[in-house]
Design brief:
This protein has about 260 residues and is α/β, with parallel strands linked by helices. Helices cover about 35% and strands about 25% of the residues. It is built from nine helices and eleven strands. The strands form three sheets. Strands 5-6-7-3-8-9 form a six-stranded mixed β-sheet, sandwiched between helices. It has a three-stranded antiparallel β-sheet with strand order 2-1-4, with helices on one face. About 35% of the residues are buried. It binds adenosine-5'-triphosphate. Adenosine-5'-triphosphate (ATP) binds next to strand 2 and helix 1. This is ATP-binding cassette domain-containing protein.
């Protein structure tokens, strides 16, 4: 589904990736872990085509098997939720319009989107499904962080995407909101769809995620089955601090050792 081969990418003057290779197949569920500045958000921006890699021989970035991607097509196949999207969102847009804007790949409705009756019905159904009934006319900026995150998830789901990509999905959420969001993500995975999350918190790696990639200074330093990668030794080395990791019923937690 996602294939980066020898990709070099910059954020302004900073070279974040120097010949990075990574392959994520259809239906895979992957967590990408790494310290601040490792390149997690940059990687997601490359996938969402907010950022383009350096054009060089032997290098390619293919999505769904294609190096050239139609953005409309991409948005209907992959739902993206990120903190940046939350920050950038037009504050006065109603909750219903936030979801509807997903059909148009827009940030906010700006009063000119003309959704079909089916699109409005689908958006309303998603608001109910994601636990936001009755919030239809509330302005985005008046919602709590947890409600905003659910709303952006609803927006990401309008096209029934094959994959969801989430940048630090529970950051800023309280414990109840986090657990609620994680259980929504678990039901999305239940339908056999792909998921990629970036995170700093191993306790948000839901049991359905089976592969973990460790990123450090723009390089993949470990990649494999969750049980092999989420070990005390590997995470201590990644974060350069003494960490202990334990697992229970498919959930992981970490503490300072
Ligand atoms: N807009 C930008 N302009 C310049 N440099 C940037 C920009 N965004 C990111 N960078 C740099 O790119 C590198 C990778 O940043 P990135 O945000 O991808 O890391 P990250 O792993 O997502 O970090 P965090 O966990 O803090 O969100 C860092 O060195 C960062 O300083």
């Amino acid at each position: 589904m996602i294939e980066l081969k020898q990709v070099t990418a910059y954020q302004q003057q900073t070279r974040v990736f120097d010949r990075l290779s990574l392959h994520i197949g259809y239906h895979e569920r992957v967590a990408i872990l790494g310290p601040n500045g490792a390149g997690k958000s940059t990687l997601l921006k490359l996938i969402s085509r907010e950022l383009y890699p350096v054009d060089q021989p032997d290098s390619s970035l293919k999505l769904f098997g294609n190096a050239t991607v139609n953005l409309w097509d991409l948005r209907s196949k992959i739902g993206f939720v990120s903190h940046d999207l939350q920050e950038d969102y037009t504050p006065y847009t109603s909750a219903l319009d936030v979801v509807i804007s997903g059909f148009f790949g827009a940030i906010g409705a700006h009063g000119h989107l003309q959704p079909s009756a089916e699109q409005v019905d689908r958006a309303r159904a998603l608001l109910v499904e994601l636990g936001l009934p009755g919030d239809e006319q509330r302005m985005f900026q008046r919602l709590s962080t947890g409600q905003k995150r659910r709303l952006l998830l609803a927006r990401a789901l309008v096209h029934q995407p094959q994959a969801l990509i989430l940048d630090e999905p529970t950051s800023g959420l309280d414990m109840g909101a986090s657990l609620g969001l994680l259980s929504l993500l678990r039901s999305f995975c239940g339908a056999g769809r792909a998921m990629i999350i970036t995170t700093h918190h191993i306790d948000e790696i839901i049991p359905e995620i089976d592969r973990v990639v460790l990123l450090s200074q723009g390089q993949v330093i470990a990649d494999g089955p969750k049980a092999e990668i989420l070990t005390s030794a590997r995470l201590s080395a990644l974060y350069q601090t003494d960490l202990q990791v334990s697992e229970q019923n498919g959930w992981y937690r970490c503490w300072h050792g």
